[in-house]
Amino acid sequence: MTEFVDPSISRPRLVRKRIVSALIILVESGGFIGLTALLLSGRLMDALVVLQLMLAVALPVTVMWATVRRHRNWHQPLGQLQELIPQVRDGVEPIESLGKVGGKLATLAAVCQQMLRDIREEKLRIAQLEEEVRQRIASRTEVLERRIGALRQQAARDGLTGLFNRRALDDYLPEAIERCKAAGTPLCVLMIDIDNFKPLNDTLGHAAGDQMLKSLSQLIRSTIREGDVAFRNGGDEFVVVMEDCAPETGQSLAQRISSLGGDFGKTFRVKHPPELSIGIANLDEVREANAQVLLRAADQALYRMKTTHHAATGAPARKRSA
Question: Is 221 exposed, middle or buried, given 0-12, 13-18 or 19+ CB atoms closer than 10 A?
C-alpha cells in the first residue's frame, strides 16, 4: 500500500511529524515490532525514520555497554591483579586474595595464584634444606672440633703421667707471666727432679722407674693448689707453674712435695732410694721477666739443691747444663 502524503503540509513540518510519529511508535510498540508494523502497513518513510532513530540510539548504547563490559571484564580485574600481586608477594595479603579477581582475568589470576603457591612452597623447601644443611655442618663442625680438641689435648699431654708436656709448658708459661705482670701479682716456678732415678731403673728395671714417675705425678697434682699447673719437662724432671703465689707459699709447697716424694721413694728396696730435689724461682727475683730466664733460674736453684743432696748421701751426682 502506497503512503498518502498531504500536499498542503510543508516538508520540514512533514519531517517533524514523521519523527514524532516514529518516537511514539518506538515507545508504544517496542522498536522492532513497531518497525515491522510500519513496513507491513506500507508506511516506508515512517519506517525509515524509525530505523534511523533506532540506529542513532543503539550505537551509543552499544558503545557504552561495550565500554562497561570491557571495564568489568578487563580493566577492573587488571587493576585488582596489579594491586594484589605485590601485596601477596610482600606477605601483606594472603595468596587466596587473588580469588577476588574476576572477569576475563579470573583464569590468569588462578594461574598466578598457583604460581605464587608453588614459589612459596619452593622457598619453604629451600629454607628447610638450608636449615638441614646448616645443622649438618654445625654437627660435623662440632664433631671435628671435639676431635681437634682431643688431638690437641693428646699433643699437650705426656703419655705416661698424664701431665702437660714441655710443648704445653712453652705455650703456657709466657702467657702466665704476662697475666701476672699485668695484674701485678707474684708468680712462682718449681722445678722438680728425682735424685737416684738412674740407679732405680738399673736395679729394679724400667717398670719401677715408670711407676715412680706416675706416682710422683699423682703426688704433685694432689698437693699443688687449685689453679696451679704441673708439667713433665722430660725424663725425670717436672715443673709446676703457680700464679699469684708468694715466695713463702712456693717454698712451703716445695717442702711438702719433697717430703712426700722422699717417703714414697723409701718404698723401693735399693741402696740409694729416690728422693726429690726442687729448685724455686720467683718472677720478681729474676733480672728479666720472661720464661727462659725464669726457667734457667729454677734450674740453677735445682742444681744447687741436688749438689747438696748428693754431698749428704754420697750418691753419684748427674751433671747439669749451666
Answer: middle
Nearest to 313 by CA among 194, 196, 204: 196
161 in any annotated domain: no
* CATH classification of the domain holding 217: 3.30.70.270
Tally of structural domains, the chain: 2
The pTM (predicted TM-score) of the whole model is: 0.57
Determine the residue type at 320: R
pLDDT at 27 over 50: no
Active site residue 158: no
pLDDT at 164: 92
Q: Is residue 93 part of a domain?
A: yes
pLDDT of 227-272, one tens digit each? 899 999 989 999 999 999 999 999 999 999 999 999 998 988 888 8
* 255: containing domain: 166-313
Say which of 236, 263, 284, 299 is annotated catalytic. Answer: 236
How many residues in the chain? 322
